[in-house]
Amino acid sequence: MELLKKYLPREEFDSYEDFYTNYTINTPDNFNFAWDVMDELAHTRPGDPALVWCDEKGAEASFSYTQLKQLTNQAANVLTQAGIVKGDPIMLILKRRWEYWPALLALHKIGAVAIPATHLLTAKDIVYRCQAADIKGIICVDEEKIITAIEEAETKLKQNEKNSLYYKAFMRSVHNSGAANASDFSAVTARGGISGTWIDFKSLMEKATSDFSRPAAVNTNRDTMLLYFTSGTTGMPKMVQHNYAYPLGHIVTAKFWHQVLDRGLHLTVADTGWAKAAWGKIYGQWLCGSAVFVYDYDRFVPSSILEVITKHKVNTFCAPPTIYRFLIKEDLSKWDFSALKTCTVAGEPLEPEIYEQWKKATGIKLRECYGQTELTVTVCTYPWLNPKPGSMGKPSPGYDIDILREDGKSCDMGEEGQLVVRTSRQKPWGMFEGYYRDKELTKSVWHDNTYYTGDMVWKDEDSYLWFVGRADDVIKSSGYRIGPFEVESALMEHPAVLECAITGVPDPERGTAVKATVVLAKGWSASEELKKELQNHVKKITAPYKYPRIVEFVAELPKTISGKIRRVQIRDMDSPGGEPR
């Protein structure tokens, strides 16, 4: 694609080594994705589909680049008329509604700060975020639970006038409208001051012009474009700060990991409140010329995902292991995957059993990736690399990776240590600016030109990296260090296990004992006999000392909105007098 060449001097590479050594990005001054990429696509590819959307109730919508530009400009005019200006932090709680994309792009055009957030926030969560980031407004879906939480938060914020929301908006669901189209921007409300009333935003959109001129100085590359509150598996959420050059860091994501097709169709299964949406539902995909596909659902049904992928002929697909874990339990022979070219996975390590079953059904090798909200694609199984199921792959260009022992020295091959990113030679494209308004927290993880990820890994003889667990997830039992992933992988090979989580529980003899929390597959029932069978199964698959001495069967595992298992919640419940965080 011609547009991509402006930012990517070289698109083809002969090997992974060539790619890692010679990949580079041209970063223009004052880059703004909405103006410089989306408006350019509206000019060069006006009728091409940019966004294809459907929901679980059968509603569908498709937007060309021109239509998306018009909606974005209308939204930008509504927001500026409401008093939103450059630098204002605005929270978006829009789930997978198609309105998220013009709303986000409108904030980019204004130079405001977008704060995507999950719809699971409580009033307490909203108060915390409003105070931490001085949020000036909220745009959210019109759902009673969300609206109630916002109004309860506003009541609490009235105690301090400077914390009050002077603008807020909500969007009505399009689920019952049959189908959406480019002119049907679902109803949004806005109000001024803490004593205002809800206003229908749809009427404001209808009155707004689709002409919106680029301000003289929208932003610099170092200005804040996005703030992500991390999922908060431990402690209070951190505010991860990304600048306006951040989208360019995701060219690698889309072109060399997802391997999206020019004028293709890409689906990443992620809620817009999670940073993974920025990885797979907007920036890199459009920079590489692929349309973004969105499946909007509240209840995950594996067969429905498969129906959507095959019906709409999705070309590239990305999902966390949790999704694939359920998909392989379906009869995959019923589906036509001929349009599907590349499948990728991230969020947690992939069990080999899932890899093998997906490959058998589709012929596609799942390609894993590792990254964080603070980073972009950091380690990945790139096209030149043969996947090793369970391995993250090798470092991305721009990322100078090392693995450190507790004494700060580099680990030997096969030795477990903490993954760090060296930034003395260069800061990787798309790496965060720091934690917003928290220099001390930033310094605690990023000092001496080294960023400490908090993740434990090891490197094999082929320089592939393998995830062990978060530093606080690694179990120390009877002098042994046990990573949860290896034990989980062993359990997943047993047909009775649908999902599992390995944690440590206090033990008077061993210090910590290994515990397995297990969700059973259909047709299996919990019993003492099955517990022993699973324990013996693990002893055969991996080192016997790693087997779970405690096995608990549950209906479901606690997870973050991004689908990651919340082992910290399981640990808290197992601690004396423990309660979930």
Estimated helix fraction: 25-40%
Please state the overall shape, judged from the principal axes of the Cα atoms.
globular
C-alpha Rg (nearest Å)? 24 Å
The biggest sheet amounts to:
14 strands, mixed
Mean pLDDT: 89
Which consecutive residue ranges, at least 5 long each, have pLDDT under 50? 172-196
Strand content: 15-25%
Question: Tally the helices: what do you get?
Answer: 18
The total count of strands amounts to: 26
Structural class: alpha/beta
Distance between the termini: 47 Å
What's this model, at a glance?
By secondary structure, the chain is α/β, with parallel strands linked by helices.
Written description of the protein model:
- This protein has 581 residues and is α/β, with parallel strands linked by helices.
- 29% of the residues lie in helices and 23% in strands.
- The protein contains 18 helices and 26 strands.
- Helix 7 links the parallel strand 5 and strand 6.
- Residues 172-196 have low confidence and may be disordered.
